[in-house]
Write a structure and sequence with these properties.
mainly alpha; flat; 135 residues
């Protein structure tokens, strides 16, 4: 009997339950527990990486896929490769969306300053014109 008991499926199922409940940190812990016992457990790799990507943790998700694809038994796994590329595309799209929003906010912030500068210049011209008229 000398073999160790493996709880990979228990950790995996616990991760699924916690993820479904929206408890990302706890689900991450469970999936990582499964991967500690079986680093090539495809279900844990995939579910953990997808969950992290949905949580906006693209770099962590990509790292998990890249590590998994570096394992001999998963190096040519088309599903993991496809999902890695989907996460990279999502990260890129999110960065573009964020940049556009920041650019829009910058424009909104700049506009009041520009308006103030224009009003200030207009007031200066007006004062100069009034000084000439007062003489």
């Amino acid at each position: 009997m000398g073999s160790a008991i493996s709880y990979v499926d228990a950790w995996f199922n616990l991760g699924n339950l916690r993820s479904a409940a929206g408890n990302v940190p706890s689900a991450e812990e469970a999936y990582r527990g499964a991967l500690a016992q079986h680093p090539a457990h495809k279900g844990s790799i995939n579910n953990l990486a997808i969950m992290l990507a949905k949580d906006g943790r693209y770099t962590d998700s990509i790292r998990i896929y890249e590590t998994a694809l570096g394992l001999p038994e998963l190096s040519s796994d088309t599903e993991l490769n496809k999902n890695l590329h989907i996460v990279i595309q999502a990260q890129h799209a999110d960065a573009i969306r964020s940049e556009r929003q920041d650019g829009g906010n910058r424009k909104k912030l700049e506009q009041p300053e520009e308006k103030e500068a224009m009003q200030s210049a207009s007031m200066k011209k007006s004062k100069k014109g009034n000084k000439g008229k007062q003489k």
